[in-house]
Every structure is written in structure tokens, then in C-alpha cells.
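For practice. Supply one:
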Amino acid sequence: MNWNSQDMDTYFQQKDYIDTLLVPLLKLETAPEALKGSSSATEFLMHLSSFIETQFRGRMMVLPPFTYTQSTNLQEMSNVLSKDLQLMDFKHIFYLTTDRTWTDVEIEGEIIWLPSIPLESMDKQLRNTVIEDQLRQVLPLFTKKWTE
């Protein structure tokens, strides 16, 4: 489920079954030499988030991405996110990111870090295969939490 009015109506009707929140965390690099890599990482993360949403529709809500810059204090950001997202009453919260720095940040929920894979030069079929492979890597993290 996506964060839009139509899916929100469905969420309210089936709230007991939709117990997982996925939060994409996007680092926006502003240095000119880092713009290309930052945009490539964003493209990868958004494709992966969309694919995960499609696979787990009816079980998972995907928030719009939280975007931050290199000067953001991640611990402060995580404290605010944790506090605010707990109000939404999801049993499981996963944060999806290509920024390895998040693996050292304390946050309520699970950080899923994946290295960014440049998708821009791939044809659609190869891109889909790469995204499916990434889902296979994170699937055990979801299922482990769901069975606890």
C-alpha cells in the first residue's frame, strides 16, 4: 500500500492485516561531484521500494521517502522519526536505505541497508531482475520479524 488517499481508505478497512511500515531514507548529496551518485542511489531505492510495495500489498504500507542532506544529524532525525511513527501503531517498522551511515544509528525499528546499484544503463528486463534479486536479500529480514 502506498501513502495515498485511495490506499489509505483500504488501510482503514483492513488495518488489522497491514502491520508493517516501510520508510525509504534518501540521502541527497549536494556537492556537485556527488550529484550523479546521489541521483542514482535515489533511483535504485525508489524502484526497490515500489517493487516491495507491489509484492507485499495488503501487508505493508510504504511511506513517501524521507530525504535528508549530508549535514543532517541522523541521530536527531531518527529520534523524531521513531517518536512520530510510533503514533501510527504499526507492529513492524523497516527503514530502507543505501546510506551505510544508518547502520550505526539507534532507531526504533529495523534498518535495511543495501548498496546502491546503478540502474540507469540497464534495460527494463535486467533492471527488474536486479530489483528482484535485492528483494530476495531483504525478504528474510521481513519474514524473521513477522514470525517473532
In short: The beta strands are 20-28, 60-62, 66-69, 92-97, 110-113. The chain has a mean pLDDT of 92. The two ends are 23 Å apart (CA to CA).
